[in-house]
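A student in our group prepared the protein record below, which I am reviewing. What it holds is a sequence and that sequence's fold in token form. My question to you is simply how this chain folds and whether the tokens agree. Do not assume that whoever made the record got everything right. I have pasted the whole thing underneath without changing anything:
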Amino acid sequence: MNFSFINNIDFLGYVLIFISFLFGIKLPDWDFKLKLRHRSIITHSPLITILLVMSYKLKEDFFFKYFIVGFSTAIAIHMLFDLFPYKWKGGALLKIPFNNISCSAQTTKLFFYFTILINSFIALIFMSNFEEFLFIIFLSLITFIRKKKYERTFVRPVLIFSFLMFSMGILKFKTLLYLTLNFINNII
């Protein structure tokens, strides 16, 4: 594999992806710090990511784009783990802060899938090149490995994330499509 892209890396951009990834992985659980009920729709939805995108559209700052890539990917990963609670009761359900409404298990699952899809899609849209994609995959793999000892499930979130990023990544990056077709061709 050719690693010549390392010379062209915008180092500050990759630092921003890393920092925003760390921020995004923790943000959904800030519902406690914000004095909201656990799994509030405010912190467990694409709302904050969409607000970031809207802010970016007001003033297209090159470095803010990196922030969105890391942040939205991390939110998607956090939500993938939230899809597999011990039981779909109480704290596992999505909460709407107005009138203390708890959503049903089915509504919560659908909304979490929607949040994962939106955040993954936004991350891929804002990626500039295949190297950013590889960097995000690297950060994600490290996160999945680190969370393995704390989370109840590991394989299902990894498989869902891999499928989403791979299938959407093929549509965005010709390099990934070429590598996939080459791999399939070598197998056949």
Q: What stands out?
A: The beta strands are 95-96, 101-102. Residues 29 and 38 are 7 Å apart (CA to CA).
